């Protein structure tokens, strides 16, 4: 007689994925951005910037980013839980500061934004998005990834650090609806060496 397993075994995998965004995703990308900013970034972004959020403008901007990217090196990916968009990432060539030279390691791709709606966090969506951006960038000859992170955004900083990223020493200050917002740049080499 075969022993009976102590617990029933469930088979199959979670219904999660990452894919390139399509035009019809723009409303959901804008929704995820708005929700994430209001919930997770309320202590990072100035209240006036959050109050000025316009979902219609965001949707139009994301539609353009998906359907008419400025270069072939720009892209937007979405993370799905079942059929629902729960996160997204946008990437493209970096804008170098006036006194900055191209990185000697080789071409860089900038992670412009990576957001996962907070209620869908801690399920691997951010890691899948980051891995997909790295795979696509490496496939296009990129040697290095970079991302600007608000100095007060400890969650994103910890996420990037756990993925092997580090600060590269550059900082900038943006105008966030009349309030200075200091950002620091993080980076990683796709070959795995820092």
Automatic annotation (TrEMBL):
<dbReference type="InterPro" id="IPR016181">
    <property type="entry name" value="Acyl_CoA_acyltransferase"/>
</dbReference>
<keyword id="KW-0808">Transferase</keyword>
<keyword id="KW-0012">Acyltransferase</keyword>
<dbReference type="Pfam" id="PF00583">
    <property type="entry name" value="Acetyltransf_1"/>
</dbReference>
<dbReference type="InterPro" id="IPR000182">
    <property type="entry name" value="GNAT_dom"/>
</dbReference>
<protein>
    <submittedName>
        <fullName>L-amino acid N-acyltransferase YncA</fullName>
    </submittedName>
</protein>
<dbReference type="GO" id="GO:0016747">
    <property type="term" value="F:acyltransferase activity, transferring groups other than amino-acyl groups"/>
</dbReference>
<dbReference type="InterPro" id="IPR050832">
    <property type="entry name" value="Bact_Acetyltransf"/>
</dbReference>
<feature type="domain" description="N-acetyltransferase">
    <location>
        <begin position="16"/>
        <end position="191"/>
    </location>
</feature>
């Amino acid at each position: 007689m075969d022993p009976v397993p102590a617990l029933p075994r469930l088979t199959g995998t979670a219904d999660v994925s990452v894919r390139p965004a399509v035009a019809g995703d723009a409303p959901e990308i804008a929704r995820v951005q708005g929700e994430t900013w209001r919930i997770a970034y309320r202590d990072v972004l100035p209240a006036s910037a959050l109050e000025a959020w316009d979902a219609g403008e965001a949707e139009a901007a994301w539609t353009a980013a998906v359907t008419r990217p400025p270069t072939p090196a720009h892209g937007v990916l979405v993370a799905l839980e079942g059929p629902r968009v729960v996160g997204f990432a946008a990437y493209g060539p970096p804008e170098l500061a006036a006194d900055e030279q191209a990185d000697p390691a080789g071409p860089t791709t900038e992670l412009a934004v990576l957001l996962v709606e907070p209620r869908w966090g801690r399920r691997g969506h951010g890691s899948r998005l980051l891995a997909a951006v790295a795979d696509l960038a490496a496939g296009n000859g990129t040697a290095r990834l970079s991302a600007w992170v608000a100095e007060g955004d400890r969650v994103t900083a910890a996420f990037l650090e756990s993925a092997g990223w580090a600060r590269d020493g550059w900082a900038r200050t943006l105008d966030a609806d009349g309030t200075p917002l200091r950002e620091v740049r993080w980076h990683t080499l796709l070959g795995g060496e820092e």
